[in-house]
Fold:
Amino acid sequence: MLSSAAYAAATMPAHAEPISFAIFSALYTIGIPGAIANAISLVAIPALAIGGSLALGRARAPSIKASDAKSTFESSEAQVMDGIGRVRVGGLQAFGNSDGSTRARLVCRLNGPIDAVEEYYIGGREVTVDPNGDVSSPPWSKNGGSWCNWKDKPGTGGETAWSSLLSLFPDLWTSAHRVRGIAQSLTIWYNPGLSEDKYFTLYQGGIPSTEQVIRASRLYDPRTGLTAWSDNGILACAHVLRRDPAFAFGMFDWSLIASEANKADVLVATKTGTEKRARAWGIWGWETARSDVMQQLLDSIGAELRITNAGKIWFQLIDDTHVPEVEFTPDDGVELTWRSGPEAVERPNICRVTYYSPERNYESAEINLDGIAWASVEDEVSRYGPKYLDIDLPFCPSASQAQRIARRRFAQARGDTGIINTNMVGLSAWGLLYGEITLPDLGDILPVRMEAPRVDDEQGTVEIPFTVWPLLPVWNPSLDEASAPEPIPDLGYETDMISPNAPASAIQVTFPGGAGTELRIGFTLPAQEYDTAEATFRSYTGDLPNSWQGMFEGPSADAATFAYLPGSYGGLTIDARVRVFNGDDGSYYSPILHTVVGVDNTACAAPTLVSGGTSTLGSSAQLNVTVSAGELRAAYVTLESRGPTTGGIGWTPWSLVSQQNARPGQHLTFTDSRSVGTGGGDVEWRLQTLTSNGTGGPYRTLSQNVAPSS
Structure:
């Protein structure tokens, strides 16, 4: 097993490669210096060195598949993985060892710094990790702790050596092992004893793999001047290109990038509501050709790289309808050489599209486009057979976004192409992409996308290849959009247990006398056999969710109706959910309750008498009862008493005997003894449930008569 680990990045000898024409031509058409243009086609290869020096001259690596990124693997060399948006990753197990009982695993996730971890998985099943690192989900939880402790570092570059590894393995791990700049996880796995059944429950297949859903890289946003997490597709393009040190900050037109970033954030209609127009999530490797990554990213958000006349880089979203940047008329010496779109026998007639699907556990998934009119040309399919256009959008996290892009791409692939020959006025198209051509004689106007002009100095002409831009109707989500794939359970954890309904409410309760506050969520579990309920919640920072946190279920884990957690959460936006376990079998989580934590001071019902009653002892009346409050909003229960006046006529005022803080279904025992003297008389007690602000409901009243003593 490896004993030390360090990610180290170095600029390696560049591997020249042909870059995509879209990027390459954009750079050269405006005369940007060749060194800068070529830089996009070169790959700087960072490497991973484990206890050794960097290896030089390795072959170009393929792109990372989404499914592969979720695996946890061991290797003496591996490329650094980077991420944008929200991703699910396993990572490189850089260190693993045991002191004979306790085992440790260090996993390098992504190039840092990352923004946050949102979800944790062990062996493919989601778990909750408490702030102290303890995994509080079954089967890992135990009384007073956990069989697994999981801690993370975001990869800021200021990391120090893990204290747990220094303590467990002082001969293997030293203060020099800092693993700086890498988002990483250290898991400590405890041994319940080889002869215990619990051992086989936890470790029958060895130490299980771990994964995380991570909010990955923080992106520079020229609109604010700050670097923060965002899944804005335009900002992601600038971020990925700037990961190559050849692309300095000053090489970008940040004002144009800011303008396009605003367009990317515009809400557009979808089949199920609205979403931002252009988002980017996904994983890429530093040894993957940067041009390949950039082209995949541009395709996934529906954009292209542009260069200003000043040689500055920016990124432009592709609209279904464009405003022309240049116009050509017959007066410009227009001469057309036509070529219609591909022959029908060759032309694609069925569109298939895949995207980075959170519904399919962050893997590449195909959208079922059956019945979507734009996605197939049935007449051609019948005549010539299916001719597929496969569109892969590995950085697109939305089925809606993927289909908007795919419709345009499919229409373009079927479109007509040609070449326009003009006089030297054609040089006005230098560095431009979109134009209009007025056809000689006919007067028809064609919207076109142009390629780089080619100049014939001897003839005094300019030749511009073009593609006719498709005329598409306005996108109608109800007709043009297929549903996203159905969410699937984590592999290997299908269950017949009934998933609970979403929690019904979330409130904050304040105990009297400065005894503190707590968050409570209420739920109703389905009628089925279970031994443990697990409720979790997460708060938000701005509009971004924090990690899920565990709660205390009550009245008991095997008969739960609510969950609570001490702390002040009033007014905060939270998500809450619940699931149940029967042994190792667990239900799926309930749907999420998304709500703002409020306060409910509606009066509660009278406390329920669970057991006990009243009695006499000599000249005293005795009370010994156990009661419970049934409402989620119950904060405390009071006991008051009164007895006969000294003269034996009438009652004394009610006086407080005691009070106890309460939770729903919690058994509270109250006792009291009140002497009435030799004359005897009646004693009454009343119990009342009160809410956070002291609002009380009806009373539970009990009485006892004490006979006069002789």
